[in-house]
C-alpha cells in the first residue's frame, strides 16, 4: 500500500511538471484618450479616440513543450475599438494575428497563418511609430512603409532563425491562394537584425504584387492599405544605440508603388502611375526615472508622384514629442503632441497635411495633442 501511495505521488509530480511545461495565456492592451486637432477637413476637433498610441488588442497565445527543445506554438489576436466595441478589421475574429507553428531552440521558428512581415518585425522596433507598444500618431505619412503595421500578411509561411552571436534572419511568403493565379495577390518579405550590447541594427524588404486589390490573397482589400497597387515595394535600414538611460535611433525607408488605385481604406482618393516615398527618421527615448520617460522624433518624408494629370514632389516635416508616466508595469498615462507641415504639392490630393489616425487637413499644417491612459493584462 505504501508503494502505491509513493508511486501515485510521483506520478502526480511528473504530471504537474509536464503541465507546467505547456501554457495558454490570455493577454491584451487598452488605450484610450482625448485628442485635440486644429484642422481636420478645415475644422478643429476634440475627440475621444482609441489606439492613438498603441493598437488595442486582446489575444490568446500558447506554447506546448514537445521535448528535445521543440515547442508547438500558436497566437490568436483580435484588434478592436474601445469607443464602439467594433473589431478593427471587419469580418474577422482574429484580424491582427492568427498563426500556428513549431519553435526549435536549435533550428528556429516556422509558423503559418496571418502574420507580421519583416518590416514590422525588424524596422518597427527602431521607429518611434512602432517602438515597444507602438506610437501610431508618429507614423510616417499614410504609414507608406507599413512600419506602423497597418496591414498583415495572410496565407503566410514564416521562418525566423535562431540568434547566432546577435545575428538573426527571417523570411516570409504570403500565398495568393488563387487557382491559376499564383502571383495575383502574393507577398514576400525578408530581414536581418544584429543585437550586441547597446547596438541594434536592422534591414528589411517587403513586396506585394496586386496587394489589397482583391478580397482574398496575401493582403485583402479590407486591410488598411492606403495605396493598393499592382506592385508595392518597401526597403529600409536602421539602428539604435543605448547610452545609459537614453536610446537614440536612426531609420531610412524607401517605398515604391506602381499603378495605384483608391481602396476602401484610402485617404487619398486618386490613382497614380508611380508613387515614391523616402522617409528619414531620427528619434530618442530618455528615461528620467524608472516611472517617467520622454521621447521625441523628427521625420522628413520626400515624395514623388506621377499620374494622368501630371507630377508633383510632395514633402512632409513631422515632429513628435511625448511624455509617459507608469503607475505600474501594466498601467501608464501619456501626453503627446505632433506637428506636421506638408508642402510641394499645391493643387494635388497631397496638399493637405495628414497625421496618422486623423482626417486630412485642408491646409499644409496640422497639429494634434492627446492625453490618455493605457493598461495591459
TrEMBL record:
GO molecular function, a single term: porin activity
UniProt xrefs under Pfam families: Porin_4
Signal sequence interval, chain numbering: 1-20
Main location: membrane
Domain of life: Bacteria
UniProt subcellular location: Cell outer membrane
Membrane topology recorded in Swiss-Prot or TrEMBL: Multi-pass membrane protein
Subunit and partners: Homotrimer.
Descriptive protein name: Outer membrane porin protein
Naturally occurring in which organism (per UniProt): Pararobbsia alpina
Organism lineage: Bacteria, Pseudomonadati, Pseudomonadota, Betaproteobacteria, Burkholderiales
Amino acid at each position: 500500500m505504501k508503494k502505491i501511495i509513493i508511486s501515485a505521488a510521483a506520478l502526480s509530480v511528473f504530471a504537474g511538471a509536464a503541465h507546467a511545461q505547456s501554457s495558454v495565456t490570455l493577454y491584451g492592451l487598452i488605450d484610450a484618450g482625448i485628442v485635440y486637432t486644429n484642422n481636420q477637413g478645415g475644422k478643429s476637433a476634440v475627440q475621444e479616440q482609441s489606439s492613438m498610441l498603441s493598437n488595442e488588442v486582446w489575444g490568446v497565445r500558447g506554447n506546448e513543450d514537445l521535448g528535445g527543445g521543440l515547442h508547438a506554438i500558436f497566437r490568436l489576436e483580435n484588434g478592436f475599438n474601445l469607443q464602439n466595441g467594433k473589431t478593427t478589421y471587419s469580418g474577422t475574429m482574429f484580424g491582427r494575428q492568427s498563426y500556428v507553428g513549431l519553435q526549435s531552440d536549435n533550428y528556429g521558428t516556422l509558423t503559418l497563418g496571418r502574420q507580421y512581415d519583416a518590416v514590422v518585425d525588424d524596422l518597427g522596433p527602431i521607429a518611434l511609430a512602432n517602438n515597444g507598444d507602438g506610437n501610431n500618431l508618429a507614423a510616417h505619412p499614410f504609414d507608406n512603409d507599413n512600419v506602423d503595421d497597418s496591414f498583415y500578411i495572410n496565407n503566410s509561411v514564416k521562418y525566423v532563425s535562431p540568434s547566432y552571436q546577435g545575428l538573426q534572419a527571417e523570411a516570409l511568403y504570403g500565398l495568393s491562394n488563387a487557382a491559376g493565379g499564383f502571383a495575383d495577390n502574393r507577398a514576400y518579405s525578408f530581414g536581418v537584425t544584429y543585437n550586441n550590447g547597446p547596438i541594434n541594427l536592422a534591414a528589411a524588404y517587403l513586396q506585394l504584387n496586386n496587394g489589397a486589390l482583391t478580397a482574398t490573397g496575401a493582403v485583402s482589400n479590407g486591410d488598411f492599405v492606403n495605396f493598393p497597387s499592382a506592385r508595392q515595394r518597401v526597403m529600409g535600414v536602421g539602428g539604435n544605440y543605448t547610452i545609459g538611460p537614453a536610446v537614440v535611433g536612426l531609420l531610412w525607408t524607401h517605398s515604391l508603388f506602381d499603378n495605384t488605385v483608391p481602396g476602401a481604406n484610402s485617404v487619398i482618393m486618386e490613382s497614380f502611375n508611380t508613387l515614391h516615398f523616402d522617409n528619414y527618421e531620427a528619434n530618442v527615448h530618455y528615461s528620467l526615472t524608472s516611472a517617467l520617460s520622454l521621447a521625441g522624433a523628427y521625420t522628413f518624408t520626400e515624395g514623388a508622384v506621377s499620374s494622368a494629370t501630371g507630377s508633383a514632389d510632395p514633402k512632409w516635416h513631422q515632429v513628435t514629442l511625448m511624455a509617459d508616466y507608469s503607475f505600474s508595469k501594466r498601467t501608464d498615462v501619456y501626453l503627446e503632441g505632433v506637428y506636421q507641415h506638408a508642402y510641394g504639392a499645391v493643387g494635388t490630393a497631397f496638399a493637405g497635411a495628414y497625421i496618422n489616425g486623423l482626417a486630412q487637413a485642408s491646409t499644409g499644417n496640422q497639429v494634434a495633442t492627446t492625453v490618455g491612459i493605457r493598461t495591459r493584462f
